[in-house]
Design goal:
The protein has 415 residues and is an all-alpha fold. 77% of the residues lie in helices and 0% in strands. It is built from 17 helices and no strands. It is globular.
């Protein structure tokens, strides 16, 4: 396996060059950038009506964005270690702002889907900012810095749907992308002024860097299985959030765009509750494997109340849907935290390559989940979408069983 050596790293350490203001700015950048991937989910009904396309066709926007993000993770993120980061990061952010303008002005679904895919590709800045911040931080502050940026990332994911629903309820779905474009442009300018202009971290070729990613994937079976588990979890998550908009906007609930956005706060509450549990499990490595299985099993079970949320039971249906969403989001996020703790212990010296394999696979699963859920909803309604979403964690349990022999007897790396 090809791993970076000290001789390949550029001279001069950049550690300890992070001010609190720059850390906050990078955290905000993570939040507003990752949000680009989720704006479309609560807007699908409105977009479909506005552009005169079916619900299944409108849902392809989510798939396009996630496929674009996966492609960017695979092809662009590895370049972050071998080129100057400031022009790369700010250039991608500027292009992202342009693609969001394209989303707001798109005359038809095809143009909107292409713009959404390009926005997904350029949004991979997030996955380069976190390791860059870790490189610049001193040893004493590295954990705090990474935690701050990951907090911004989580806030962006959790509040993006609510933001989209509220803005669309007030000014229409096109205004969501227009406001997002302005936010990205402002972030680009501020980051351009604040980021130091360091040289490349590694003196290797792009081909060698990609080969290193492939080598890591081939050498680590636990990485492969954990990446597939993440794909199953995120596929289930994407399947639900892509299709629940159609249920909430339909005749059973008749939610407005604003109400759909506010409903997304339920998912935020569920995900936040998972963080404490994830940290507790992370402090006890022996519990990681069994806790991961419990999270996947509960994720599958959560679709029982979620499925009943589509039954004609009055307020009881909504209550069951809320309970199911709380459990579902908590299990998805909790499983993700456990996956990362296991993956990053495999090769501490090659974490950027581990991230490329893990996150690319995860978002490919999300794209599959969005597509499969939309098709199931179009064919069989809410019951079909729910069963499709539940199938993903069942597949994840198979992967979880397969990874046992690679994890239970393997001690965690000290780094």
């Amino acid at each position: 396996m090809t791993t970076p050596t000290r001789e390949q790293a550029t001279a001069g350490s950049s550690a300890g060059q992070l001010s609190p203001g720059l850390v906050r700015l990078m955290s905000v950048t993570c939040a507003v950038t990752v949000a680009n991937l989720y704006y479309a989910q609560p807007l699908l009904h409105s977009i479909g009506t506005s552009l005169h396309v079916s619900q299944g066709s409108a849902s392809l926007l989510v798939t396009a964005g996630q496929l674009g993000y996966a492609a960017g993770l695979l092809l662009i993120v590895p370049a972050g270690d071998i080129v100057r980061r400031r022009p790369l990061l700010t250039g991608l952010l500027a292009l992202c702002a342009v693609t969001l303008v394209g989303c707001s002005l798109a005359p038809n679904l095809l143009v909107l889907a292409v713009a959404a895919m390009l926005a997904g590709i350029t949004s991979v800045v997030v996955q380069m900012l976190v390791p860059y911040a870790a490189t610049m931080a001193s040893d004493a502050e590295r954990g705090k810095v990474i935690g701050t940026l990951m907090g911004g990332l989580l806030i962006g994911i959790l509040l993006s749907r609510t933001f989209a629903g509220v803005v669309a309820g007030l000014a229409g779905w096109r205004a969501v992308y227009a406001v997002a474009a302005v936010a990205m442009a402002l972030t680009t300018v501020m980051l351009r002024r604040a980021l130091p202009d360091h040289g490349p971290q590694l003196a290797i070729s792009y081909r060698a860097q990609l080969r290193g990613v492939l080598d890591v994937a081939l050498a680590e079976p636990a990485l492969r299985w954990r990446s597939l588990i993440a794909a199953c979890g995120f596929g289930s998550f994407a399947c639900f959030w892509t299709t629940v908009t159609f249920l909430l906007a339909g005749p059973q609930y008749g939610f407005s765009q604003l109400e759909i956005g506010l409903f997304a706060l339920v998912g935020a509450a569920g995900a936040v509750t998972s963080l404490a549990g994830g940290r507790a499990v992370d402090a006890r490595p022996a519990l990681r494997w069994p806790a991961s299985g419990v999270a996947l099993a509960l994720l599958a079970i959560s679709y029982l109340p979620i499925g009943l949320g589509g039954a004609q039971l009055g307020w009881v249906s909504l209550a069951l849907l809320v309970v199911g969403v709380l459990v579902m989001d908590a299990c998805v996020q909790g499983s993700h935290v456990i996956n990362q703790s296991i993956v990053y212990d495999l090769l501490p010296e090659a974490r950027s390559r581990l991230t490329t394999v893990y996150i690319t696979t995860m978002f490919a699963g999300g794209a599959l989940g969005s597509f499969a859920g939309a098709q199931a909803y179009q064919q069989w309604g809410w019951t079909g979408a729910t069963l499709t979403a539940a199938a993903f964690p069942v597949a994840g349990l198979v992967c979880w069983g397969a990874t046992r022999r690679h994890e239970v007897l393997r001690p965690a790396s000290p780094g």
